[in-house]
Predict the 3D structure of the following.
Amino acid sequence: MDKPETVEPLSTIIDGPEGSEVLIFNEATTTELQVKCFKIVGASFGWPLPEVDYIEREKFLMQRPLTHSNGVGIRWWCLQVQGGDGSGRVVATCKTLNRDLLIRTAAGGTREGQGYCIGAVATDKRYRRLGLAEFLLRAVARWMDGAGEAEASMLYSSIGKSVSLCLISPNRSGLPPTQPLMPEDIPALCARDIENIKAKFSKDKPAADKILMTTGAAFISRKTNGQVPPFRGAINEYGKTWVYWHHDFPDRELTIQRVVTAAQATEDKEDEGQQIVTLALASLLLAALDEAQKWKLHKLVIWNPTAELHHVIDFVQEQFGVDVINEERVNSNVPSVRWGGGNEDKTSEVVVYHKRILCLELRASRSHCHHPLTR
C-alpha cells in the first residue's frame, strides 16, 4: 500500500477561551507541527519525563522499524487554531498506527487486512469539554474510510480484568529452568507465534494477535534510571513456552503482555502435557517476579488472563505463597472497535487485548456493533 497523502479539509467553530475560534483538521507532517502535538500529549501523559525528554521520546519512536509498516506507520493528526500561515496553535491531537490484521469472518473464513490503532488522544487543558476529541476522531475516521483504506480500527483502552502478583523471592529449584529473552530473540519467536495463531485461527475460535516490541519503556528507563532493561521476557529451556513483558516505570509495574505455551503449539490436551505447561508457566511467572524486584517495581500485572493462566496463578499462590489480587477495571475508557465505513451491521470481538501492544484481533458476525466514537 502506497502512503496515502490526501486529507479532506475539515473545520469547526468553537467558543474557546479566547472567544470564537476556527479550528482546522490537519495531518502533522512537518517536524514543527509534530512537536506541537508532542507537547499537548506530553502535558497529559508524559510523566515521569520532562517535556524535552518526552519530545525526544516521540521523535525516537517515529523512527523505529515497526512504525514504518507498509510505508504508513505512525501518523499524527491535530486540530489547529486557524492561522494565515498554517502554523496556528495545536489544541487537540491523536496518532494512528498502521497494523496488519488477521480477520475471521462470520462465514468462518480467515483473511488478512489493513487497519489502524488510535492512541495519544489529548486536548489542551484550556480547550477541554468542548467536544474536540470527538470531532478529531470523526475526522480521522473519515480519512481511514477513504485514503487510509482501513478495514477496521481500534481505540486504545485499559478496561477489563487483570491480576496482580505481589513481590516475593521464592525458591524455584523444583521448577523447569528458564532463561531471559533478549531483544534479538523476539523476531523469530514472533514469526513462529503468528504462524501458530494463523493455523489455530483458521480452524478454531478466533485468537489472532501480533506483538509490538515496546521501545517507549526502554526510552523512559534510560532517562530515569540511566540504563535500559536488557531482558524482554523469559523462555523455558525447550523454547516452546515463553512470556514477553513490559517495564511500566511510571506505574512501577511489570506487565506481562504475551504468554505462549507449548500446548498452543502442539495442542497437547493430555493431563501430563498440561502439568508440564503448568510448571513451565509457574517458573516463568516467578522469573517475572524476580525481574520486577530487580528494577524496584512494585508488582507484576497480567491483563485478561486465560483460564489456563488463572490455574497457574492459583498454583503459584498455593505453592509459593505469592499474594494475588484479582481486579476488574471498569472506570477506564470503553474498548472501541470500528469497522471501515462505520459499518454497524457487524460485531467486533477483541479476542485477546494486551496492554500497550496496540494489537487488533477481530471476529465479524451479523449482529449489532457499538460505535466507537462515543466519548
